[in-house]
Amino acid sequence: MKKIIIAPSILSADFANLERDIGIVEQAGADWIHVDVMDGHFVPNITIGAPVVKSLRKTSNLIFDVHLMISDPAKYWADFQKAGADIIVFHAEAVENPKDLLKTIKASGIKSGVSIKPDTPVSQIEDIIPFADIVLVMTVEPGFGGQSFMNAMVPKILRLRQIIDAGKYPCIIEVDGGINAQTSKICVQAGADALVSGNYIFGAPNIKQAIDCLR
User: Fold this and answer.
1) CA-based nearest residue to 39, from 1, 69, 84
2) Segment 75-99, tens digit of pLDDT
3) Which of 213, 43, 212, 23 has its CA nearest to residue 115?
4) CA neighbor of 8 nearest in space, from 202, 212, 215
5) Among residues 21, 39, 65, 176, which one is catalytic?
6) pTM strictly above 0.90
7) What total of structural domains would you count in the chain?
8) Which of the residues 21, 36, 133, 193 is marked catalytic?
């Protein structure tokens, strides 16, 4: 049985105590830290920028999985790479040529990935999957934490699993949005490799138990 990657989203952490909360989930067995970067334009919310990632990088050895929900990722991704991101995921909907951006990010020495919103079909990114380290399926509308899982996104995970397995591509399927004890099982059964979870983890009375339950 493959090990499922658990990536707590600090969007649901206490922003006044991010170092503390990252330390708590690291001790509890988290694999990655998921950092949601929002610009108030591509999505209707504003979160954090590269200077915060740079500060947090000093506090943890976990993989920093930076999700750029911004309108011009080609302009800003390098700032996050320099700040200490290990993975940069951008939205297919935000760039004209995602394949080129995937290759450019990967050439910098880190992993690159592409994300799709709920309305975006897998067919729109099928030709670039061979160039991606990660495909992130949004199972809520990006912008805010605490939303309910959209079951209609499960066929996307299944389709991606088929494509990746058929092509033997070294690409991870990541799922983000409404992930809890119940929906995590649905996603893993459909073929997900990595689960992003915010409220379920950071709002749990026992964070280690919550992470173990997701895995």
Assistant:
1) 69
2) 999 999 999 999 999 999 999 999 9
3) 43
4) 202
5) 176
6) yes
7) 1
8) 36
Catalytic, 36? Answer yes
pLDDT, one tens digit per residue, over 96-149 is 999 999 999 999 999 999 999 999 999 999 999 999 999 999 999 877 766 789
Helix axes 73-83, 98-107, angle to 10 degrees: 20
Return the SS3 of 201: helix
Cα three-residue angle 89-99-91, rounded to 5 degrees: 35
Q: Is 124 left (phi over 0), alpha (psi -120 to 50) or beta?
A: alpha
Measured CA to CA, the distance from residue 123 to residue 128 in angstroms comes to 10
Total residues found in the chain within this entry: 215
| pLDDT over 90 at 191, yes or no | yes
Distance between CA atoms of residues 48 and 68, nearest Å: 10
72 labelled catalytic: no
Beta pairing, strands 87-91 & 111-116: parallel
CA 28 to CA 25: how far, in whole Å?
Answer: 5
Indicate which CATH number applies to the domain containing 150.
3.20.20.70
**Can you tell me which residue has the tokens 């992003």?**
196
Domain encompassing residue 175: 5-214
Inter-CA distances, 201 with 29, 149, 178, 188, 197, Å: 11, 15, 11, 17, 6
